[in-house]
Every structure is written in structure tokens, then in C-alpha cells.
């Protein structure tokens, strides 16, 4: 935490209050404060820094030090709206300054042109609300480039024949290849496919105040101790603080957006650490609380004027949830890979980004990557072949034989937007603050499951070609756990079928903006954070232009 | 923050703008500091049980030694797992105390029932011990991530199994995996940073350009 942050009074009407400090909130805070606005960021989680991050798996796996805690913020799950939802941990997201970007894998693919216009290309799909975006890849391209250069993404431009056009190369070379990457690359080429170095939001070269990746091996799930992972914490938040106009206020749990008689947002009500409530006044409110908490907050903000929740005249707040289909296939090789060293992913491929619907018989597309995202304890629970005894001599022998010899192929894919798939308020369960808990309703579209199984089959072919001693996986199952939280307040030109317009402004409330995974219209092929950040840079430009023209405050 | 300089403060504050090579050069000093802290932590808290009685600890120790037995490589016993579990039950795993409170008498009952005359699990032969444990193990499926997939794990053996694995494989800086015994078994080097090449298959990687050309030739 820097000392030169301003401390705004809650009664002082700042220009913007931003709710959430993750991938989108961090960038909006940086951009808006850089553009001269006074900004308060309300983050529900604590302000942890590099000095607080450890290699302690217990903190991550059992104590949820960086993520939403199932005891404080329980949730419920059901497959269809006809069922009564049961308490069950259904989602995980980052709950600290920097949000999920603190602990993510850092795969930073751009979406391709097709992701924005696919509905027009393939036509309607029964049972879905599949739609085009109101913006195109070309609109977002300058902002993808901005993410790469300002936040720090390593990669190799032109290495994939499927890459969309770009205006600039990456600012730094790809990270070193791992053994999993070499095996993947050779086997994929043998198959006639086109592997390439994974674009990662992890530094391959140092930047001011940040080290290059030191390959410590505690990456997915963990905060980076050396600032090499390009989280909002290590990048945008620091830059926002340097403007002297941005206050990051941690431990501030927003539970209501207040509106006045004219239907304008006046500020955000939040609990501080001692559970006292405050109203931070602001000329405009920007919600970047993630694809679950953003719709929840709008629903919690219902009042006489907005009985179905704020900005919900479409009825789409919380709906059309997409999670990205997919899963892992595992393999064991003869010689040591030592893939526990380093970041997770070094090689990926996009040959299946756009599958021919008529040929495969379902809609969708995706990517494959070679990775190892286990740490020692998580490996013992999830990385061993399924026929391994769970304890005893053979279990120990399997641990010894497999830990250094294993890789994973992660199959990433599309999810179709289905209206019933949603986050809503549970009518019974409350969180530790007495607020209605999140209720998740989700049943995969059949095409998403078909796609996942199709991708698994390709991964097995690849592993066969790679000469794996053994490879295994499981058929696709209906999702009951969410990590990517997408589409729940989607962008569009028609106020009847979308929540925000192309400027991220809600159709219903003129000085209320939303930007995070909830803004996405389609799911992309499995890696949304790069696009969320590009949208945030673009939203900041749009909001700044509106504010400068006086179109927000009047 | 006025704590003594820890390894990670050193890492996070000491390397601003510097390269990984710098860290590499200074690593021995950092590791030495971490080692000192660990020793200090140990001497401040001698192995005294906070949750178990000494008799219970002997039973738990015997079970952990069947979950991860000792052979030519160290097992749960050498990794001091019973101490880790004891500390865990007093801290992050306090919710699991009930499993142990209910499980230990049940263990005693089964030992007596299955092997009349025997009074303690730790007094049985290894084969007899396994027989008792199999009677507890209902053979759940492995979970993708520990703890999360079984939030309400009240089952004594499954809880103990999870705790044993955690205590055997946790980073030795955090109160288990004594002397890095578990990491010796799985072959994880105990360093805080690594440099490529990492393994057998990337050792002779010719670089992206050369690899691409090589592939074109074929």
C-alpha cells in the first residue's frame, strides 16, 4: 500500500466509485484516475501484497486466503429453475485487492474475430440466446495491444496461423518452454496441427518494480511473490495509486447501489471491516465485481422504482451464464518432465478454434494447452491415475513415479448462453452479513458437452503421438462448479435483450456502468481475462469521453 | 511492517527491477535465512501435542504410517505427520476435531472386535492394521482438489487420509513434511526458484525457430 493515496470522505461526492479491484476494476481505476478523475475503489477482500503471499498449500486449499470463503459467503446450486437449490460450493473467485487476477493461471489469449460475430455466421441455435456483440474484434484490437504492453504479456506474434490481426508484436518474448510444452509441440506437429508458444500474463523479462518469473512452481491458485504475474495488484492498482487521485479501500463489502428519485445512482452502500455501513457518494458508479457478484449486487439493489433489481428492465441481470466447457486429460511419460517447475502453460494450439458444425455435428470450438498446474498436495489428490490405490505402499509408489512424470492437456471450449443458466438470490440462505446468498442454476447445453468430449478425444490422440506411457481422462460431466463467470449482464444494442450498451453503460441507469466477465456476449474459447481487460481499457475511454462531454452528470 | 526480514519480503522488496539472475546469485543467503527462521520456530514450539493425548498420538502416528508407509524412502512417520495433524486440529482444521473425537473410540472398538485380546491399533501387526483401516475406507473417488470437494468430510479415515497427505507433502516451511521427507519421495527439489531446462524432454530443445524449421523438413 502506498502512502500517497488520497483518503476521500464518504460524504464527498467523488467522480467515480468502482466496485471491485480485479482484472477490470483495477484497469478502470488506473485509467480513470490517470484521466484526472477522483476515484474510490471498494474491494470486499483484504489488501494483501507480495509480502503476504506464501507457498503454503493449506492457506490456498483449505483456508481460502485469496478467495471467497464458503463459510462467510455460502451459496446454493441447482440444475434447473424447477428445482430447489441446495447449499453447495458452486463458485470460486478472488477476494482480495487484485481479485482473481492474483491467483489465475495467466493464459492471455485474445478472442478472435469470429467470437464477436458468430451468431450471424452460424445462425440461431435452439435453446440458446446466442447473439452477436455490438462491437467487433477491430474495435477491441487497440485495447488488446494496450493490455499486452501496459500490463505485461509475453508471447510470440505470428507464431499461430490462426491468430487474429494485431497492430504490434508482444512487448516481450515467450516464457521458456517446459518439458510438457516440448512433448506437446512435437506431437501436435506430427498430427499436422499448429502448436505455438502460449501468450501468458507473466513476465519473461523484468519491468520496473517487478521481477521476471523465477519459476518457483507455485503459480495457479497462488499470489506471485515477485510481482511477475501480471495481476491487477502488481500492475494497474499500483499505477492508479501513483496518480494521487485513487483511493483503494479494502475490506469494503458493497451490498447496495443507492438511487435517487430521478433513477440515478448516487453511490454505493458498503460494510466496512467492523460491519458498519457507509454510503460512498459518487457522480457515477462502475461495477466490476465479477460475473456472479455484479448481478447479485444489482438484484440486491432492488427498490420501489426498480422492483426487479437495478438495470434489470430486460430481465437479463444474472442470466445467460457461461462457464467455458472443457476439462483435463492426463498422461505419464517415461522420463522426468519436472513440470512442477515454472508457470503452468508453455504451449497451446488453436487448430480447433472454429469447428465445422456440419462435420462434427455440434456447435463450438476451443483450444488445447499443455500444462502442469498441480502443487504437491493437490497432485496427490487429483493427479494420479484413477486405478491408483488411495493409500498404502502402492499409493506412495505412484506418488514417487508420477509427480515428475506427469503432464495435463487442458481442453478449453465454448459455452452457449442459455437463459435459465444464471446467478440469482437464494430465497433462504444468507451470508455472514445477513444478505441473500448467491444461487447458481446451471445445466450445460448439450453441444457444450459434445464439444468437450470431442476435444478430449483429440487430446488422447495427441498423447498417443507423444509416446505417453499411459494417458487417462474422464467423460465430460455437467458442470456444478464455476470459475469463469461470464455473460450475466451482457452487452448489446437492444435494451430488451441486454443489460449494458457498447459503452458499458446500463440501458436503465444513466450513470451506472458495468464491466467484467458479466459483459461478455459469447464465451470465447476458454480464456476470458485478456478480453475482460481489453474491455476495461475500452470502457475507460468511452466513459471518459462521456464524462468530458458532460453526458454522465446531467 | 516491522517483522524481521523474511524470505518473501526479501524477494518482493529486494529485487525491484532486477533480473532473475540477481535472485539466483543471492538465493543461498535467502534460503539460509528461511532455514534459520524455521529452526527458530521449531525451538520455540517443542513437539508437544496440543490436541491429542500421547496415547492418541501414538495411534494416529501408527495409522499415518500405514497411509504412507516407510520403505527405502521416508514415510509419514519420518515426515512427522502426526505433529502436523495435531497443529492443524488446533488451527485451520478445527472443524475436523469431531471426526477424530468420534473416530478414535470407534477405532479402539474395531481393533478389539476384529482382534480379540488386542487393545491398541499401534500394537497390531502391519497386516492387521491394514485390515482395520480397510474396514474404515469406503473407497471414495479421488477428488480434483482436496478439501473443497468434500467440504463436510466427517468420515474419520478420509479426513485422516487427507491430513496425512497434506502433512507429508506441504512445503516444509509451513509446519509439516519434516526435513522435506515427502518432497524427497516425489522428487520435488527444495528450491525457491528454477531455471530452464527443467526436465528430460526440454533439455535439447533447439529453440522455437529451429524446431519450426525442423518440423517443416519432415
Report on this model:
- The complex is a heterodimer of chains A (554) and B (218).
- Chain A has 554 residues and is an alpha/beta fold.
- Chain A is 23% helix and 17% strand.
- In chain A, α4 packs across α12 (529-548).
- The radius of gyration of chain A is 22 Å and the shape is globular.
- Chain B has helices at residues 7-14, 20-44, 54-67, 81-90, 97-114, 126-136, 156-169, 181-186, 208-217.
- Chain B has two domains: 7-45 and 192-217, no CATH class; 54-186, no CATH class.
- Chain B is mainly α and 218 residues long.
- Chain B is elongated.
- In chain B, α5 (97-114) crosses α7 (156-169).
- At the A-B interface, α2, α5, α9 and α10 of A face α1, α7, α8 and α9 of B.
Low-confidence stretches of chain A: none
Characterize the main sheet of chain A: 7 strands, mixed
Give the total of beta strands of chain A: 17
Radius of gyration of chain A: 22 Å
Tally of alpha and pi helices of chain A: 12
Question: What keywords describe this structure?
Answer:
heterodimer, A: 554 residues, alpha/beta, FAD/NAD(P)-binding domain, Cholesterol Oxidase, domain 2, 2 domains, seven-stranded mixed β-sheet, six-stranded antiparallel β-sheet, 12 helices, 17% strand, B: 218 residues, mainly alpha, 53% helix, 0% strand, elongated, disordered N terminus
Amino acid at each position: 500500500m502506498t502512502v500517497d493515496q488520497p483518503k476521500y470522505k464518504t460524504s464527498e461526492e467523488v467522480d467515480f466509485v468502482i466496485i471491485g479491484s480485479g482484472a477490470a476494476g483495477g484497469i478502470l481505476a488506473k485509467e480513470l484516475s490517470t484521466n484526472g478523475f477522483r476515484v474510490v475503489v471498494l474491494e470486499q477482500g483484504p489488501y494483501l501484497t507480495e509480502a503476504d503471499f506464501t507457498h503454503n498449500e493449506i492457506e490456498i486449499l483449505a483456508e481460502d486466503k485469496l478467495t471467497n470463503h464458503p463459510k462467510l459467503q455460502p451459496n446454493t446450486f441447482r440444475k434447473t429453475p424447477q428445482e430447489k437449490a441446495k447449499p453447495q460450493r458452486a463458485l470460486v473467485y478472488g477476494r482480495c485487492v487484485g481479485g482473481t487476477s492474483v491467483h489465475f493461471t495467466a493464459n492471455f489469449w485474445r478472442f478472435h474475430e469470429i467470437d464477436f460475430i458468430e451468431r450471424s455466421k452460424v445462425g440461431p441455435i435452439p435453446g440458446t440466446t446466442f447473439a452477436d456483440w455490438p462491437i467487433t474484434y477491430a474495435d477491441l484490437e487497440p485495447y488488446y495491444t494496450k493490455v499486452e504492453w501496459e500490463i505485461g504479456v509475453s508471447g510470440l506474434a505470428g507464431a499461430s496461423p490462426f491468430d487474429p490481426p494485431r497492430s504490434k508484436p508482444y512487448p516481450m518474448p515467450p516464457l521458456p518452454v517446459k518439458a510438457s510444452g516440448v512433448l506437446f509441440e512435437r506431437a501436435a506437429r506430427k498430427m499436422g496441427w499448429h502448436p505455438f508458444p502460449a501468450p501468458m500474463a507473466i513476465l519473461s523479462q523484468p519491468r520496473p518494480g517487478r521481477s521476471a518469473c523465477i519459476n518457483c512452481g507455485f503459480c495457479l491458485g497462488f499470489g506471485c511473490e515477485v510481482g511477475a504475474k501480471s495481476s491487477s495488484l502488481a500492475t494497474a492498482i499500483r499505477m492508479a495509486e501513483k496518480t494521487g487521485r485513487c483511493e483503494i479501500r479494502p475490506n469494503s463489502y458493497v451490498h447496495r447501489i443507492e438511487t435517487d428519485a430521478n433513477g440515478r445512482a448516487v453511490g454505493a452502500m458498503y460494510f466496512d471491516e467492523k460491519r458498519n455501513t457507509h454510503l460512498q457518494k459518487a457522480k457515477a458508479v462502475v461495477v466490476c465485481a465479477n460475473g456472479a457478484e455484479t448481478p447479485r449486487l444489482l438484484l440486491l439493489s432492488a427498490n420501489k422504482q426498480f422492483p426487479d433489481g437495478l438495470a434489470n428492465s430486460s430481465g437479463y441481470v444474472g442470466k445467460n451464464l457461461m462457464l467455458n466447457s472443457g476439462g483435463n486429460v492426463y498422461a505419464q511419460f517415461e522420463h522426468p518432465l519436472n513440470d512442477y517447475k515454472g508457470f503452468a502453460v508453455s504451449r497451446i494450439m488453436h487448430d480447433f478454434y472454429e469447428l465445422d458444425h456440419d462435420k462434427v455435428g455440434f456447435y463450438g470450438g476451443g483450444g488445447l494447452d499443455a500444462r502442469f498446474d498441480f502443487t504437491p498436495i493437490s497432485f496427490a489428490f487429483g493427479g494420479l491415475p484413477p486405478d491408483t490405490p488411495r493409500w498404502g505402499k502402492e499409493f506412495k509408489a505412484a506418488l514417487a513415479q508420477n509427480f515428475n512424470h506427469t503432464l495435463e492437456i487442458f481442453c478449453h471450449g465454448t459455452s452457449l448462453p442459455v437463459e435459465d443458466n444464471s446467478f440469482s438470490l437464494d430465497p433462504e440462505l444468507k451470508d455472514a452479513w445477513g444478505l441473500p446468498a448467491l444461487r447458481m442454476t446451471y445445466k450445460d447445453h448439450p453441444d457444450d458437452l459434445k464439444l468437450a468430449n470431442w476435444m478430449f478425444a483429440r487430446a488422447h490422440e495427441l498423447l498417443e503421438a507423444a509416446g505417453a506411457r499411459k494417458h487417462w481422462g474422464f467423460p465430460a460431466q455437467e458442470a456444478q462448479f464455476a470459475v469463469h463467470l461470464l455473460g450475466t449482464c451482457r452487452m448489446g444494442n437492444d435494451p430488451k435483450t441486454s443489460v449494458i450498451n457498447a459503452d458499458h453503460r446500463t440501458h436503465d441507469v444513466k450513470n451506472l456502468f458495468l464491466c467484467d466477465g458479466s459483459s461478455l456476449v459469447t464465451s470465447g474459447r476458454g480464456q476470458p481475462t485478456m478480453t475482460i481487460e481489453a474491455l476495461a481499457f475500452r470502457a475507460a475511454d468511452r466513459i471518459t469521453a462521456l464524462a468530458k462531454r458532460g453526458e454522465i452528470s446531467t | 511492517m516491522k517483522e524481521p526480514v523474511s524470505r518473501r519480503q526479501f524477494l518482493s522488496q529486494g529485487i525491484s527491477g532486477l533480473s532473475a539472475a540477481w535472485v539466483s546469485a543471492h538465493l543461498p543467503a535467502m534460503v539460509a535465512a528461511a532455514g534459520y527462521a524455521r529452526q527458530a520456530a521449531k525451538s520455540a514450539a517443542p513437539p508437544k501435542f496440543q490436541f491429542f493425548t500421547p496415547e492418541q498420538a501414538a495411534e494416529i502416528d501408527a495409522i499415518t504410517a500405514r497411509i504412507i508407509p516407510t520403505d527405502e524412502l521416508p514415510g509419514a512417520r519420518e515426515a512427522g505427520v502426526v505433529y502436523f495433524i495435531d497443529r492443524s486440529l488446533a488451527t485451520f482444521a478445527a472443524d475436523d476435531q469431531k471426526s477424530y473425537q468420534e473416530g478414535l473410540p470407534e477405532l479402539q472398538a474395531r481393533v478389539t472386535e476384529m482382534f480379540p485380546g488386542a487393545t491398541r491399533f499401534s500394537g497390531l501387526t502391519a497386516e492387521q492394521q491394514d485390515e482395520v483401516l480397510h474396514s474404515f475406507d469406503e473407497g471414495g473417488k479421488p477428488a480434483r482438489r482436496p478439501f473443497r470437494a468434500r467440504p463436510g468430510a466427517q468420515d474419520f479415515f478420509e479426513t485422516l487420509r487427507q491430513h496425512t497427505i497434506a502433512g507429508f507433502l506441504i512445503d516444509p516451511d509451513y509446519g509439516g513434511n519434516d526435513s522435506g521427507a515427502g518432497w524427497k519421495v516425489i522428487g520435488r527439489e527444495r528450491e525457491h526458484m528454477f531455471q530452464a531446462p527443467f526436465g528430460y524432454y526440454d533439455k535439447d530443445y533447439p529453440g522455437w525457430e529451429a524446431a519450426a524449421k525442423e518440423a517443416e523438413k519432415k
